[in-house]
Amino acid sequence: MLAAVSDRPAYSIVLSTFPDAEAAGRVARALVEEGLAACVSVVPGVRSFYRWRGSIEESEEVLIIAKTTSAALGELIRRVRELHPYELPEIISVDASGGLPEYLSWISESVRPDLRGGRAPDRAREAF
Q1: CA of 117: how far to CAs of 4, 9, 71, in Å?
Q2: Are 100 and 67 in contact (CB under 8 A)?
Q3: pLDDT recorded at residue 26
Q4: Mind listing the pLDDT tens digit for each residue in 74-118?
Q5: Sheet harboring 55-69: ordered strands across?
């Protein structure tokens, strides 16, 4: 059963892969500098297998993991798409339904004020 929009968690994790550390780092820095993400982790050494234009491909890639508010999600996705070197970039968001309360608060405080939105997480969602 799908949750109602109002029940959506206030935080999101965004995953995206890049061809190299330079491109990943450039986008990661831009997202944090522009207040679209509180933190972006850059993970090198990702080996991806995928189907592209009828062929099975294999690539060494660099993964970014961006932590943001759900209110900032649309703007963050738009910005990643704008900066991304791939024709069809992987940009996937996952709702963060819980976490350390102090860390979740820090995410809210670190994102641009106009994109903080959402609701404060309740204690049931904070504990795993």
Answers
A1: 17, 11, 5
A2: no
A3: 98
A4: 999 999 999 999 999 999 999 998 899 999 999 999 999 888 775
A5: 39-52, 55-69, 11-18, 92-96
Tokens 């963050």 -> residue: 76
Length of the chain as a residue count: 128
2's tokens:
């799908």
Q: What is the pTM of this model?
A: 0.85
Alpha-carbon separation of residue 100 from 10, 20, 77, 104 (angstroms) = 13, 31, 25, 6
Closest C-alpha among 15, 12, 4, 3 to residue 98: 12
Beta-carbon contacts of 91 under 8 Å, excluding residues fewer than 6 positions away, are 14, 15, 16, 77, 80, 81, 84
Characterize 46-76 residue by residue with b for buried, 16 or more Cβ atoms within 10 angstroms of its Cβ, and e for exposed.
Answer: eeeeeeeeeeeeeeebbbbbbbbbbbbbebb
Q: How far apart are CA 97 and CA 92, in angstroms?
A: 16
Taken in order of first residue, the domains within the chain and their CATH numbers are: 10-113 (3.30.70.120)
| Vertex 88: Cα angle to 82 and 20 (nearest 5) | 75
